[in-house]
Amino acid sequence: MALVLTQVYLEAKQKKELAAKAKASGRKSSDLVREAVDALLLGVNPEDLRQLDLASRRAERDIAEMIRTLDANAKSHKLFMAEMARLRAAAA
Questions:
Q1: CA gap 42, 53 in Å, rounded
Q2: Cα angle vertex 27, ends 1, 47, to 5°?
Q3: C-alpha to C-alpha distance for 63 and 57, rounded to whole angstroms
Q4: pLDDT, tens digit, for every residue of 23-76?
Q5: 17: pLDDT confidence band, cut at 50, 70 and 90?
Q6: Burial 57-70 (b: 16+ CB within 10 A, else e)
Q7: Any idea what DSSP says for residue 9?
Q8: Cα separation of 89 and 92, whole Å?
Q9: What whole-number distance in Å separates Cα of residue 20 and Cα of residue 44?
Q10: Could you tell me which residues come within 8 angstroms of residue 33 by beta carbon, excluding any fewer than 6 positions away?
Q11: Residue 19 Cα to chain centre, angstroms
């Protein structure tokens, strides 16, 4: 892919936050800008991203709750099986 130099004026806050995101992700600011342009060209808008973020966070909470429930069920099952083994041993 051939890159073309393009100047973009950003607000100081945008520039600072972009640089922080780039550093945190170990990528270049220009990579992030190209991704944002690609998303815009595909029709992804900030509201879509907000909705996706909310849904992802909700799914993460739901999955964590499911894991807690499964862990509790596993513990209960283990106790039940131990009790069954005890009863079988006592009946033998």
A1: 18
A2: 85
A3: 10
A4: 999 999 999 999 999 999 999 998 998 999 999 999 999 999 999 999 999 999
A5: very high
A6: eeeeeeeeeeeeee
A7: -
A8: 5
A9: 23
A10: 8, 18
A11: 21
Cβ atoms within 10 Å of 29's Cβ, excluding its own: 15
What is d(CA 15, CA 19) in angstroms, rounded to the nearest whole number?
6
Rounded to whole angstroms, how far apart are CA atoms 52 and 38?
17
Amino acid in position 3: L
Phi, psi of 25 (to 5 degrees): -90, -5
| 91 token code pair | 């009946």
The residue count for the chain? 92
CB atoms near residue 30 (< 10 Å): 14
